[in-house]
Amino acid sequence: MAFLLVEELAIVFFCIGKYSDEPSPADEWFEQGKIVKAHPVGGTGDKAKDPIFGLAMGGGSQTSSDLFRWFCVDSGSADNHPIVLIHGFPSQAYSYRKVLPILSKKYHAIAFDWLGFGFSDKPQPRYGFDYTLDGTCIQNPGRKSLIFVLTKKLNLVTLKMDSVCSNYCMPCMVAEYTTSLESIIDETTKGKATLVVQGYFSPVVVKYASSRQEKITDLILLNPPLTAKHANLPSTLSIFSNFLLGEIFSQDPLRASDKALTSCGPYVIKEDVAMVYRRPYLTSGSAGFALNAISRAMKKELKPYIEEMRRILMDENWQVNTTIIWGERDRWLSYNGVEEFCIESKHRLIRLPMAGHHVQEDSGEEVAQLIAQVVGR
């Protein structure tokens, strides 16, 4: 009996995905962007291995050796005020394709793929980006763990002794994602910027903004998880965190991309659009393994993840102009409690009755106009 590597399964399942030799929508989107190198690669430099079979993964699943490669699309003059568009989980910078051209008329609009998504590097846990603390958690089962931090100057320093830390704990993941976010923002912007973020990555951006308030003019949150009722991942996403089953389902492009988009709102995905979102899961298994790792982290610690964001946004020391744009047809996050939070925190709330969780997909042009109004007021 012949066996295939997990990273090859998606290609086998969807080998008919390329319809012709003409440039695909994914190729055309890639041509609009560029690769930006930012944030140091941690780890030992070993080649990433398939987490199921332990075999070395292909070249497309390996990261660079020094700095991570981020896929970025920017539009508009670099001399104008920068607006950084940050996609949600799971999604891509492609979700802002309708927003970019409108904002570029007056602003420098920048969208990037998070590490683990789209055309950016997709490091495997323990191979450069652990989805844990800022450096590496070196574990001794049943004993104490030495937790290290890799600083900006690439100095490895001991932070503390702690009990054995899960490779997928959310407080650690938020810290690592926060430092990588700082790296890519510093690399792509100069001066003050406006940050726009959608969905489950909102707490990461709020965490970053809390210590960089002097660099941010406006923060715009698109359907962020805000209440206690938002503390559980929807089944569409939590399935990716399951042992073994999660590894299998995260390699299925239809589950990882199509269903994740269509199950959370009224959006009806077109085939040419679907092929762009499927592309990472068709080319290697690294996208699925990253999705599996992030899902485990979010499922385990989503509650404190949300609570910390609420504390920051309601703190009297929070000085950033904050606007929440809410698609009311979100099937993942209930609107109940959102208005009350905005009233109590004194943050502006804008409701979009016809949009779902991924508001930039459902109402991209309208979202772009609203962002321009917020920044220009």
UniProtKB/TrEMBL annotation:
UniProt KW keywords: Hydrolase, Signal
Keyword Nucleotide-binding carried by entry: no
Leader peptide range in chain numbering: 1-20
Gene Ontology MF: a single term: epoxide hydrolase activity
Start and end residues of each AB hydrolase-1 domain: 82-362
Signal in keyword set: yes
PANTHER family found in the cross-reference section: AB HYDROLASE-1 DOMAIN-CONTAINING PROTEIN (PTHR42977:SF3), HYDROLASE-RELATED (PTHR42977)
Protein name: Uncharacterized protein isoform X5
Species of origin: Coffea arabica
Species lineage: Eukaryota, Viridiplantae, Streptophyta, Embryophyta, Tracheophyta
Gene: LOC113732001
